[in-house]
Amino acid sequence: MPEALTLPPGLMIAAPRSGSGKTTVTLGLLRALVRRGLAVQPFKCGPDYIDPAFHAVAAARPSYNIDSWAMSFDRAADILSRSSLGANVVVCEALMGLFDGVSKAGAWGNGASADIAAKTGWPVILVLDVSGQSQTAAAAARGFQEFRDGVKIAGVILNRVGSPRHVRFASEALEAAGLPVVGALPRERNVVLPERHLGLVQAEETAEINTRLEALADFIETHVDVGRVLQLAVPGSVAGGALTKIKPPAQRIALARDAAFSFVYPHLLEGWRAAGAEIIPFSPLADEAPDPQSDLVWLPGGYPELHAGALSNAGRFRSAVTEFARSRPVHGECGGYMALGTGLVDAEGQRHEMLGLLGLETSFANRKMNLGYRLAELVAACPLGGAGEVLMGHEFHYASVLASPDEPLFQLRNSDGEALSGGGSRRGQVTGSFFHFIDK
User: Fold this and answer.
1) Where are the alpha helices (DSSP H) in 330-434?
2) 334 is catalytic
3) Which of 186, 217, 240 is the last residue of a domain?
4) Same domain, 215 and 267
5) pLDDT tens for residues 38-50?
6) Where are the alpha helices (DSSP H) in 257-362?
7) By the number of CB atoms within 10 A of the CB, which of 245, 311, 312, 325 ranks highest?
8) Is the pTM of the predicted complex or chain greater than 0.85?
9) Angle at 383 between CA 268 and CA 272, to 5 degrees
């Protein structure tokens, strides 16, 4: 039998749907708990780069993604147990609605946040947007109580409440249904964080981020019984097994890292380092060249479309990567893939010349959403693995592909097992795709 790994007391912040206020509650609660002198470990369910960056600032600890579809359970158990060492309490933010996932199970679940709540035993605090309703909120919450064995709804935070009478009606109905109401948040525009098409604006781009987080913490302290929330947290556990190490793509990795290229999962960077790899960051936006002693240049995802002009004019960066690609591999994920292409058309319709190491042409003038879990079978060897290897990950972008003349890198399938087009590109030692790697 696998050994049970004990986890600190924890809670999941979840909701019936996206846009209910999970992130507002999570960030405010993280900072409020830190201000009380607690070591708080944040997690994010599912594939998401942006929320964990805010978590990390709010909690002053790295936040990690846990994914039941695209991550082996042993990987998830290792991340949960290792990263929460020394923490007094865990706060895990759910993705979308609590039970939302795909139709076919992946590694150990269908990608729903409820998978993680059930596996760890951490209870759920349900954030309910009660605008336009009162007692009906109790019926919705009661359905959450009984929907899945092993998932406990420990309490409710009402969001977007109106008058005290509105709060009373909803609270009385919820308490009668056996669900304690631990907070009621009024409609408040001044504590909302700025947004963009992939979710929240990146933490490092948000002006006065700590001032905003302090305001969120004040908001939560005023309208939520934080002490009661802490009392609802219970210790968790996971059954750990034999963990396969993440093989790094190279020994010395030159990693683009700035506002244009910031989407890298922390568990991958830590896995690469644990396997002996050295990661050397550089900034294309600052027109920096990658370390010439590196074995690989890795351009991760991000927002190159917002910085296309600066990237097009970054002569030192462009010439250095072009020269590097003559003898060593260069790989791009999503935004990095677009930067490796021939050109990028921004939202205003202006075309910017990119590195030209691949034939890819992309446009944001006519956006097209591409979203979902992916299984990617490598057609040819690349930094991610050998031909025939199958990787788990996801795709999330709004770029339209105008041209993609190169040989594909992957054979892609979605979460239903259906074959997809758009399997990336390869040309010589240069490879790239919109696929974000999570595990294999």
Assistant:
1) 335-340
2) yes
3) 240
4) no
5) 999 999 999 999 8
6) 266-274, 308-312, 315-324, 335-340
7) 311
8) yes
9) 25
